[in-house]
Write a structure and sequence with these properties.
By secondary structure, the chain is α/β, with parallel strands linked by helices. Helices cover 53% and strands 13% of the residues.
């Protein structure tokens, strides 16, 4: 399983960078239609909505429709136990709390990879490797 960080969903809807958009769409489409191996948490949807409202002129209806497209990726909710787990991850790795929530949600869903632009390409958190398909040097472009 692969856990998608918020930036993957945002780039899939972002017209300003066609290269990143194509990569994100390929990743999500492949995860939904071919491997059935992609997942997100409610935190990712919350961050996605916040980003869409802050940085685009998208309407509520448009954002709602986008979220429907990600429905089959949703695997876990942010719960009290997940928040507590994230506190432990934050302490263990010294990363920001919301990044620790991403790592915790990925771990809870049994993911082997975290697809993210923000968590440090190649970094390993609790056995899960971070893949950044958007970096120019990444050998893991697209669906891999």
């Amino acid at each position: 399983m692969r856990f998608f960080d918020t930036n993957v969903l945002v780039y899939a809807q972002d017209d300003s960078d066609p290269r990143k958009r194509a990569i994100a769409i390929d990743l999500i489409t492949h995860a939904l239609e071919v491997n059935h191996d992609g997942c997100i948490s409610t935190l990712v949807l919350q961050e996605f909505c916040n980003t869409m409202y802050k940085k685009t002129s998208r309407t509520k209806a448009e954002i709602d429709a986008m979220m429907d497209g990600f429905r089959d990726l949703l695997q876990t909710d942010v719960t009290l136990d997940l928040v507590r787990h994230a506190l432990a991850v934050k302490e263990e790795y010294g990363i920001p709390f919301y990044d620790a929530l991403i790592v915790s949600a990925a771990e809870k869903t049994g993911c082997l990879e975290i697809v993210s632009e923000d968590l440090g390409e190649g970094q390993v958190y609790r056995g899960m490797k971070v893949i950044n398909p958007f970096s120019e040097k990444s050998s893991t472009k697209g669906r891999a």
